[in-house]
């Protein structure tokens, strides 16, 4: 289920008929008519749904919130709260969506919409990840929140959706490390560059950036004169990604200096080689 589709619950079918009837009788602005204080919980909910359907997500979020304020102990209070979180997210008011989703989890941790609330909370971070150059704090927060959905609600449909987005966010962090590493490499700051590429190899091994990171390590270590490390990086690259363009480039660099893509010496890459290639974990 996409976040653009509101979650369904035991109230949905019963309320949809009421919404349709009220919508047919509505005229003028959706915000006109009696004040919310004059309406019961069902009528407020119906008004909020009309606003949401009309593209007025910001107004809908406020209206859904009125049910929590005026009828906090009603059956609809729970449903209105998750719909408020959904409406805020639709309006791209991510901070307010996150706050409403967290409030739902605090008040109704065992209810059927709890997995969706946790997913909305994670999306409030994830949907702001748009550029590699931005501060990655949002990416880290998204990863943490997505992991919570996966671990706390493993049987829900949102666990699978969260797992997909977790992989993308994880790859995003690796891409940031690669971007910084390339920046240093172009400026011949080989130590700083190698440290960034090492982070990708050690902490983001399952990302799509690992083959390039290994090649960039070959480049960096050859420039630093660390031949053992360069050859070992080439060995790992050759074992796992022999058909890639990055292995071909590393192989050319190494052989061009009379070196081979074989593990040499005792360094951090040798440890990875023993673990990954030879299965020696101790």
TrEMBL record:
Q: Does the keyword Membrane apply?
A: yes
The record's section on InterPro entries has: BamD, BamD-like, TPR-like_helical_dom_sf
> Which key words are in the record?
Cell outer membrane, Membrane, Signal
Ranges of residues in domain Outer membrane lipoprotein BamD-like: 39-233
Q: Where in the cell is it found?
A: Cell outer membrane
> Which Pfam families would you find in this protein's record?
YfiO
GO biological process, alphabetically ordered: Gram-negative-bacterium-type cell outer membrane assembly; protein insertion into membrane
Q: What is the designated name of this protein? A: Outer membrane protein assembly factor BamD
**Which spans of this chain does the record mark as coiled coil?**
none
Q: Where is the signal peptide?
A: 1-25
Family affiliation:
Belongs to the BamD family.
Q: Which gene encodes it?
A: bamD
Q: What does this protein do?
A: Part of the outer membrane protein assembly complex, which is involved in assembly and insertion of beta-barrel proteins into the outer membrane.
Provide the species name: Yoonia litorea
NCBIfam families, A to Z: OM_YfiO
Task: Tell me how this protein assembles.
Answer: Part of the Bam complex.
HAMAP family (alphabetical): OM_assembly_BamD (MF_00922)
Q: Name one GO cellular component term.
A: cell outer membrane
């Amino acid at each position: 289920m996409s976040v653009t589709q509101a979650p369904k619950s035991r109230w949905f079918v019963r309320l949809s008929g009421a919404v349709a009837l009220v919508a047919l009788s509505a005229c003028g602005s959706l915000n006109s008519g009696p004040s919310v204080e004059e309406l019961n919980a069902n009528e407020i909910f119906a008004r909020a749904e009309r606003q949401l359907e009309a593209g007025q997500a910001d107004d809908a979020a406020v209206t859904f919130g009125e049910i929590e304020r005026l009828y906090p102990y009603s059956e609809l209070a729970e449903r209105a709260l998750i719909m408020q979180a959904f409406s805020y997210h639709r309006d791209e008011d991510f901070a307010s969506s996150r706050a409403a989703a967290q409030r739902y989890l605090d008040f109704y941790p065992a209810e059927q919409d709890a997995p969706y609330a946790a997913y909305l909370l994670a999306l409030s971070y994830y949907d702001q990840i748009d550029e590699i150059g931005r501060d990655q704090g949002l990416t880290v927060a998204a990863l943490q929140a997505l992991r919570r959905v996966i671990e706390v609600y493993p049987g829900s449909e949102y666990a699978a959706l969260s797992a997909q987005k977790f992989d993308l966010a994880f790859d995003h962090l690796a891409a940031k490390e690669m971007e910084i590493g390339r920046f240093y490499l172009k400026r011949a700051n080989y130590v700083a560059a190698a440290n960034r590429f090492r982070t990708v190899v050690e902490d983001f091994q399952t990302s799509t950036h690992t083959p390039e990171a290994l090649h960039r390590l070959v480049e960096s270590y050859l420039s630093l004169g660390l031949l053992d490390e360069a050859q070992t990086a080439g060995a790992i690259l050759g074992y796992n990604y022999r058909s890639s363009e990055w292995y071909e480039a590393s192989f050319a660099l190494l052989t061009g200096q009379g070196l081979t893509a074989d593990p040499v010496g005792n360094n951090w890459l040798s440890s990875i080689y023993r673990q990954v290639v030879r299965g020696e974990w101790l």
